Every structure is written in structure tokens, then in C-alpha cells.
Amino acid sequence: MSSIAPAAIRARLESFADPAYKAFNAKLIPNVDPDTMIGIRVPVLRAFAKELRRGGADAAAPFLADLPHRYFEENMLHAILVGDVSATVPDAIAQLTRFLPYVDNWAVTDTIRIRALRRADADIRQWLDQLAQWMQGGHTYTIRYAIVALMTDFLDDRFDTSQLQLVQDVDSDEYYVNMARAWYVATALAKQWNHALPLLQDRRLDPWTHNKAIQKACESYRVSAERKALLRELRV
């Protein structure tokens, strides 16, 4: 399949419109203008992305280059595609460097998953350095993306305490940034308890993020009742 014009992709997206879901989604993402929403469920977007990928590496290239997009769902489709079509870490960095400045909500950032990181030859050091740079920037959703990516991909055997430091050092008053920081710490408590707990014991986070991290950890089935009791004693 040859490349597909952005207008053709937009027309296909419009054909998937679900007005009832649009109304529901608008409530979940209140900072996005409902007039920019079509109303498409994520599984439908993923199925369409899969269809586009079957067309070859270049099928969606014009769409990915056509920024900014008109619709929220175009950004969601972009988020799905960019994670799948980026063949290497440098490619993913280049793609996201172009895309992230246009992202204006949590749903898009939290949808991005870079498959290239699973490759045995992936340059993980370069990726971590880039996440650190993004966390030090000034764009709310670029920072949020970097925190969520660190949480999603590095709280396993690739974890290092320097990653906790990156999240600790983010200085922001933005709700969606600090919610991501709290989510990261809560997940770290579930997966890397001994390393994450000192952040709370030593009061290294601002009070709101500190307490929100405890709340989210106490809501998690992955944290034991005994540990939840300890966390509740650490609230400020």
C-alpha cells in the first residue's frame, strides 16, 4: 500500500463517530474542547492503526508529519502509531520530539508505548537521557509523558535509584504532572518497595504529591495490608 493522505485518514476516523462515547469521553478529559472530539473508542483506534501498519512503513508517514492535527482522536491515533512504527530509539526520539509539543491532555501521553525499547539492541541509555531532558522542560504533557514512560518501562529489572531521583526532582505546579509523579511513586512502592519508601519517609516530595502517592498505593491490590498501614502513618 502506498502512503495515505492525512485527509483520507481523517475521513475514516470521522466514519467511526460514536456521539454517546464522545459525550462520555469529554467528561473524562475536561481540558479538551469537545468540538475537537469525534467520539471513538480506543479499541477501534487500535484496530485502525493495525490496518494502517499492514500497509507498510510509509503508509501513515504523511499523517504523522501532518501536525498539528485537527481532532483529539487524530492525536490518539498518532500516539498509537508512533509507538509501533518507530524502529529504533533515535527514531522514537525524533518522532516524539515533533509530536509531544502538540499534545494537550493526559489520555494521549498515557497511550504512547515505544515497542523499540523491547529490542535487545535498544539504546536504553540514550532513551533514559532523553526522558531526563523531557522531564526538565516546561511543557506539561511532555513532562508527564516522560514520567509515565519511566514508570511503564523501567520499574522492572532495568530499574535504578537514579530514576527515582529524576521524578523527585521534577518541580511543577501542574496537576497532571504531579498526578503522574504520584502514580509513579505508588507503582514504585508496589514494585521497588525498599527503594521507593525512603522518598516518603524522608519527605522528599511536595505534600500534595506525597499524600497522593500514599493514597494511590493504598488503593493498589499490589501493596500488602501491612505496608498500607505503614504508608498511612506517613501522611502529612
TrEMBL record:
<protein>
    <submittedName>
        <fullName>DNA alkylation repair protein</fullName>
    </submittedName>
</protein>
<dbReference type="InterPro" id="IPR016024">
    <property type="entry name" value="ARM-type_fold"/>
</dbReference>
<dbReference type="InterPro" id="IPR014825">
    <property type="entry name" value="DNA_alkylation"/>
</dbReference>
<dbReference type="Pfam" id="PF08713">
    <property type="entry name" value="DNA_alkylation"/>
</dbReference>
